[in-house]
Design goal:
Elements (H helix, E strand, L loop, with lengths): L12 E2 L1 E6 L5 E6 L2 E5 L2 E7 L2 H9 L1 E6 L5 H9 L8 H5 L3 E3 L6 E3 L4 E14 L2 E13 L18 E4 L4 E4 L16
Antiparallel strand pairs: 1-11, 2-3, 2-6, 4-5, 5-10, 6-9, 7-8, 9-10, 11-12
Length: 187
């Protein structure tokens, strides 16, 4: 095996689009990949010092959408362009903005699934960023992406993952097994 030392290569990494309103009520978004489940109703996002981070200080409510193959270009764009320098950033994405149902934050309708979140805690806050712990207040899913059981079907969403090794996006694949079931074959 080849050794690579310490790298932030926990795979796969979701491509998340954080949606928030600025102080004037304008929708803003940023791309974030370093995130995960914190608890049953909590998520954690590692955030650098961005305009979105400043907006979170003032607002507290935000949304998290899951990027797809279809939203890839605009999702990458909101990660490399700051609204501070490009005020028409969201207009350039072509995304449709509607208000979230449970929090005061924007929902971008082009994404199949969006979590409505509220800031609960910030850890290790510094000039370079923080770890944000957020409560998931509600989850919205476009009905076109529901499975036969009425729950979201991620295999229909064309979700993408960030490849931190080669700095690219990879589309998530097919179902290959059944969790809490397939391992029983080794009992």
């Amino acid at each position: 095996m080849k050794s690579f030392g310490t790298k932030p290569w926990l795979l796969p990494q979701p491509v998340l689009i954080i949606g928030i309103y600025d102080k004037d009520g304008n929708p803003n978004a940023m791309n974030a990949a370093w995130a995960g489940t914190w608890d049953r109703d909590r998520i954690m996002i590692s955030l650098g010092a961005h305009q979105t981070t400043k907006n979170l200080e003032e607002k507290g409510d935000f949304t998290v959408a899951f990027a797809t193959k279809e939203t890839l270009t605009a999702s990458d764009f909101v990660g490399i362009v700051s609204m501070k320098n490009n005020p028409d950033k969201i207009k350039k994405t072509g995304w449709t903005v509607v208000p979230a149902e449970q929090v005061k934050a924007p929902v971008f309708t082009e994404f199949p699934m969006t979590m409505e979140c509220r800031v609960k805690e910030k850890l290790d806050e510094s000039a370079t960023g923080c770890y944000l712990i957020a409560e998931v207040v509600n989850i919205l899913c476009d009905e076109a992406y529901l499975a036969e059981d009425g729950k979201p079907d991620m295999t229909r969403m064309n979700l993408i993952s960030f490849d931190p090794i080669h700095l690219r996006y990879v589309q998530m694949g097919d179902v290959v097994g059944k969790a809490f079931s397939d391992g029983k074959a080794l009992k």
